[in-house]
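User: Second chain of the day. Same drill as before.
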Amino acid sequence: MVNYREILRLDSLGYSQHQIAASVHSSRNTIREVLHASKTKGLIWPLEATLTNEEILTLLFPAKVEMATKRKESDYSYIHRELARPGVNLTLLWTEYCSTCNAEGVMPYMYSQFCDKYRHWAHVTKATMRIRHKPVETMQVDWAGTTLQYQDPITGELSDVYLFAAVLPCSCYAYVEACDDMKSTNWLTCHLHPYQYFGGVTRLLLPDNLKTGVVKNTRYDTILNKSYQEMAEYYETAIVLARVLHPKDKSLAEGTVKFATTWIIAALRNRKFFSFEEVRLAVAEKPEELNHYSFKKREGCRYSAFTDEEKEFMKPLPLSPYEPAVWSTAKVPLDYLISDGKNKYSVPFDLIGEEVDIRLTKATVEVFYHSSRVASHPRMAKQLRDPITQPEHMPVEHRKYLAYNADEFIRWAESVGEYTSRVVHYFLSAGREPEQGYKSCASLTKLGDRYGHERLEAACERVLQYSSQPAIRNISTILKNGQDKVNDGKRPVPASKSHGITRGAAYFQRGGEQA
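Assistant: Same format as last time:
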């Protein structure tokens, strides 16, 4: 905008129009118009201190101001978005803007004004606010975009190493760690280590919107990964996500990542590493150098700022560190086994077809249904051939099947009686291998459940009276026909408690006549 106050001030000091134009960077025609209008309107220097250039413009050129108010303002946010598209420039957008103005019957800005107004809008929207961070308020975390590499000494294969950075914004005290991947387990572990390094916990935790930590982050909903949320609850800290595509929300973490890229990755570019452990140790030395490096614009260093301003205010750590856990969901299949990716573990069979939550730690496998734990197993590090099951998770039939062995059948038969034991010993020894008699033994147990142990014992005794090679078919027939209840003179018949025919055989021999 034209500096009207300066023009009038210089004119009052006797400067020529040429000199004034050079001083205020305006054309001589503009200087001439301003001086002529000021004489016409009687506006002379000195002016009131509160009178602005906009107000002087309104006083000197009211027609121009009125004309400017009739011009159509552009949608500068739309212009900014369109300029990001390939081949689009301000000239094309101004042409489209003029076409719109002509269609609406309003006056457009000229090209120079159009560009000036857009550039002013762009500068204003880039305004930033310097925030004063409170001690132990927040810990900002992020991954570095650039990686280090190490070479396998045998195969020559190159592997990437990723850098995790955490920083306390108040003191800028930083922590950097090397990781072999950016998966959920390392992401959680990399939060535990800076807490231990700092010696305490902050009130808030500010991460990016990465998939290992955040399931969903929209204007209306924020859903965190269950493992990440569990870790935050364990340390009694709250997770506040940075806005999507707003890296300045965690500017200190971005600065620490930039440091890691320059002073760690770039500084180690000429070193050859042959194991992940070598890279990890080399990276671990660098944060100490950064934290003890003197500030340029204030006294001390990051370490001294941390010890003086933040250390004593850190929230205390729990007695034991959090054990990283990975959560997942699964539908229980027909074999009621869930997997940790390496081995299979049992869950209660009545959950078949239901969705369950699986919590995996280094030592345990836990299964939850509607937030209640329904199964827990020690997690096996090595891959096993058979699944890990608990008897109480199985149906009764499956438990019985697993109990099919010679010792179990003999133990059961001895609990029934002597003759049943003799029959079971025969079944197990009749074939080449004991397993050939398991089917007959299992059928015998079912007969015991159906008819009772007393009748089964009597039936086994009766079948052994007639054969030294008892068969399950014969025992079943005896029980079905009730032959185990018939007295053959060898066993006493228990007194009958029934009240059947009481008239005796003599009554029926006389043809039913009464005596």
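The chain has five domains: 4-69, 76-125, 138-313, 326-391, 403-485.

User: Great, on to the next one.
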